[in-house]
Specification:
The structure is a single chain. With about 260 residues, the protein is an alpha/beta fold. Helix content is about 25%, strand content about 30%. The chain has 6 helices and 15 strands. The strands form 5 sheets. Strands 7-4-1-8-13-10-14 form a 7-stranded mixed sheet, with helices on both faces. α3 packs across α5. The chain is globular. The two termini are about 20 Å apart.
């Protein structure tokens, strides 16, 4: 399947002031940016055709791949002055770079790359800033078996806050961590049928408009994942992922454990 990656937002919670031009998907986890980790995850499962929805900082993303150095994440031999790579990351990837606008909502970005999906009925989509060890093959199989028009991975709430259940009089009945509540949140990994485009208005949102409409029809499947899942929406979250990478605690790198 083709993989659509939304990597054109401003990422304000990740930026170091107004002069920081590095887009969020290009923030580093180890020696490679978040975007690379997401793409490497999909490539591990055999999905190597990527469509990048560019916007803010698109030039940084283009330059990263135009000047890609395989030696950063692969072993190599230098012989007679020539570099011989022992393995490769992206040599068999196909990457399409599409400017989808600076201010476009996610749904509008998706609308603008529709033609690049060709005749494929189903495709994958991702926010490009969330890492997971979810079994992608199982995610796709369960979506197919469900007969739904779209699937989103859902995960337990990640907040460390507590919810308080109380009476109208102010008496607290129970205190419970949000993570223990019987709730699920959008995990950012989608399997979509092209029918999704019929529900996307110009300037619309993928989740609020299209997925919301499908949920009302009973045609949205939620893939529940209880394993590793972590966003990199803030500096703190990105730093935690980077620390995990450097300590060897990096479960999202499923290609290392195959």
């Amino acid at each position: 399947m083709k993989v659509v990656l939304f990597c054109g937002g401003y990422g304000m919670r990740m930026r170091d002031g107004t002069d920081d031009m590095i887009p969020k998907p290009m923030q580093l986890v180890g020696p490679r940016p978040l975007l690379w980790h997401v793409m490497r995850y999909y490539a591990h499962y055999g999905h190597k055709e990527f469509i990048l929805c560019l916007g803010y900082g698109g030039l940084h993303i283009k330059n990263f791949f135009l000047s890609y150095e395989e030696s950063v994440s692969n072993d190599f031999v230098i012989r007679d002055g020539q570099v011989e790579m022992l393995s490769s990351d992206i040599s068999d990837w196909k990457i399409t770079f599409v400017d989808t606008g600076l201010e476009s909502a996610i749904g509008e970005r998706l609308r603008r790359v529709r033609d690049y999906l060709g005749d494929d009925e189903c495709f994958l989509a991702n926010y490009a800033d969330v890492l997971t060890d979810a079994p992608l093959d199982d995610m796709i199989d369960k979506f197919t078996a469900s007969g739904a028009a779209a699937s989103m991975m859902v995960v337990p709430p990640q907040s460390s806050f507590h919810c308080v259940d109380m009476k109208p009089t102010g008496e607290v009945k129970e205190i419970m961590p949000v993570s223990r509540m019987p709730l699920w949140e959008n995990g950012g990994y989608f399997v979509l049928n092209k029918e999704i485009f019929d529900l996307l208005p110009p300037g619309g949102d993928l989740v609020a408009d299209a997925c919301g409409a499908l949920a009302g029809q009973g045609r949205l499947f939620g893939y529940q994942h209880l394993g590793f899942w972590k966003p990199a929406d803030t500096f703190k979250e990105r730093a935690e992922l980077d620390a995990g990478y450097r300590s060897g605690a990096r479960p999202w790198m499923v290609w290392e454990h195959a």
